[in-house]
């Protein structure tokens, strides 16, 4: 529930905390590395956690929707109040602007949930449906936690040796030659030093090996449940309620109230205003009673109960499944925003690395502090926004391919492939980082071309992993699911 209520607030609070912390660090004359990392990494992460878990309380509910939770709002012990609450359930659902589906493997097996879903989609459609699989929040928080552990280890390493790695001034002094040769050697030094930071990404690999197989299995099960959905197989706490609930669902999907033919209506009443016309239309109540609906079905040959339930089954298998696939993709897909959010601690940690090298900017070849900060911030923000997020969908595909083998061997192989994936992404990013820095310092067009080429390649990878039309990954309904 916190994921649905507070994720947007948490992201806004984190962005605000990042901006404020960067401003504070920029104006501090000579902050220690511990203070600097506390400001640029710890405070934004603390802001995210506080807003994520307590945002609805901290804002006094001003930005939160009014919720109607059936298990909390329907009395669970008193039979009289419980029956009244159940009678009013369709009204509450129909009057709601959004329906939150907290999916687990039993969601489509609960008949009352299917009644709520059928009422909402008929009254509001799928646009107001908010779908949150229950595996997603723990996976997000777990990924962020282990990314923070890796970034905290990076902060400790930088505090012990602030002029090592990319900030090593000896590497810059060893560079020689004309502008092109100097830029090439600078790029090569980046590629040589980048792998020293791979160890700080290992915690992210570990949590991926643990959580991603569960994500794959959970997502496969979700799509499979929708593909084979049949409301007649759903469970009901009281078997005596099954027929009543099925009848209500059937009435929503029998098509009797959907207009098929429009004819002119002559009436002696005259309408002097729009309000009078609306009142006149409302006087002709189109809603059929239960008895009249059954009579209409018999007289017009409209679908019977079984056919109406099959119509609802088809709606879940096609329309609902399509909407969820468009939002979350297949079991091998993840939204870019979620992937980028899991990399936030890494992004903040490497931004701290930029601030750690601030006293050395002139020794690193930069003409001014402003030039140093602009180039390094561009480098490290690109790492967290463009390069590291693609690791998750790549690892999902790798682990899905390795899932057929023995569990232990699959985990070991997945860990090795995860390390290789992050190693490749570090090489890819540092090639782009070295190119943009070489261009900023030498203004040689060859390095601008190399930087734009790397951006084009990562944009193509993003399109393949995040931007493909979702209909390409949607599963087709087999013929045996129609019965």
From TrEMBL:
<feature type="transmembrane region" description="Helical">
    <location>
        <begin position="34"/>
        <end position="54"/>
    </location>
</feature>
<protein>
    <submittedName>
        <fullName>Uncharacterized protein</fullName>
    </submittedName>
</protein>
<feature type="transmembrane region" description="Helical">
    <location>
        <begin position="402"/>
        <end position="428"/>
    </location>
</feature>
<keyword id="KW-1133">Transmembrane helix</keyword>
<feature type="transmembrane region" description="Helical">
    <location>
        <begin position="196"/>
        <end position="213"/>
    </location>
</feature>
<keyword id="KW-0472">Membrane</keyword>
<feature type="transmembrane region" description="Helical">
    <location>
        <begin position="369"/>
        <end position="390"/>
    </location>
</feature>
<feature type="transmembrane region" description="Helical">
    <location>
        <begin position="448"/>
        <end position="466"/>
    </location>
</feature>
<keyword id="KW-0812">Transmembrane</keyword>
<feature type="transmembrane region" description="Helical">
    <location>
        <begin position="7"/>
        <end position="28"/>
    </location>
</feature>
């Amino acid at each position: 529930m916190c994921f649905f209520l507070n994720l947007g607030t948490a992201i806004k609070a984190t962005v605000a905390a990042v901006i404020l912390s960067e401003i504070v660090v920029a104006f501090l004359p000579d902050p220690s590395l511990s203070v600097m990392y506390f400001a640029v990494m710890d405070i934004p992460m603390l802001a995210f956690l506080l807003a994520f878990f307590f945002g609805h309380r901290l804002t006094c509910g001003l930005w939160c929707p009014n919720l109607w939770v059936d298990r909390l709002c329907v009395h669970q012990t008193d039979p009289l109040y419980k029956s009244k609450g159940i009678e009013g359930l369709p009204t509450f659902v129909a009057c709601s602007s959004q329906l939150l589906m907290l999916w687990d493997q039993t969601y489509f097996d609960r008949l009352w949930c299917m009644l709520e879903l059928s009422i909402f989609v008929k009254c509001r459609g799928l646009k107001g449906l908010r779908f949150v699989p229950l595996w997603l929040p723990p996976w997000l928080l777990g990924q962020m936690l282990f990314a923070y552990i890796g970034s905290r280890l990076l902060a400790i390493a930088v505090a012990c040796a602030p002029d090592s790695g990319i900030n090593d001034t000896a590497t810059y002094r060893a560079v020689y030659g004309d502008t092109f040769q100097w830029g090439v050697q600078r790029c090569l030094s980046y590629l040589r030093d980048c792998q020293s930071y791979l160890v700080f990404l290992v915690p992210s690999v570990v949590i991926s090996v643990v959580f991603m197989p569960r994500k794959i299995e959970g997502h496969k099960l979700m799509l499979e449940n929708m593909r084979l959905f049949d409301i007649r197989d759903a469970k009901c706490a009281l078997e005596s309620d099954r027929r009543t609930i099925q009848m209500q669902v059937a009435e929503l999907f029998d098509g009797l109230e959907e207009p098929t033919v429009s004819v002119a209506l002559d009436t002696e009443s005259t309408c002097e205003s729009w309000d009078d016309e609306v009142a006149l239309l409302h006087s002709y109540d189109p809603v059929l009673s239960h008895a009249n609906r059954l009579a209409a079905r018999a007289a017009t040959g409209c679908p019977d109960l079984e056919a109406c339930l099959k119509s609802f089954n088809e709606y879940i298998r096609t329309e609902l499944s399509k909407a969820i696939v468009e939002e979350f993709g297949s079991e091998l897909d993840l939204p870019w925003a979620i992937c980028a959010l899991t990399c936030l601690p890494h992004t903040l940690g490497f931004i701290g690395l930029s601030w750690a090298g601030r006293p050395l900017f002139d020794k690193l070849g930069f003409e001014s502090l402003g030039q140093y900060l602009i180039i390094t911030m561009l480098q490290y923000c690109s790492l967290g926004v463009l390069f590291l997020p693609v690791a998750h969908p790549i690892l999902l595909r790798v682990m899905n391919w390795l899932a057929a083998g023995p569990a232990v061997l699959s985990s070991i192989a997945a860990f090795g492939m995860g390390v290789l994936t992050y190693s490749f992404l570090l090489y890819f990013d540092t090639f782009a980082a070295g190119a943009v820095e070489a261009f900023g310092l030498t203004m040689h067009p060859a390095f601008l071309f190399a930087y734009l080429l790397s951006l084009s390649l990562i944009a193509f990878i993003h399109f393949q992993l995040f931007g493909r039309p979702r209909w390409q990954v949607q599963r087709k309904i087999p013929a045996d699911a129609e019965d």
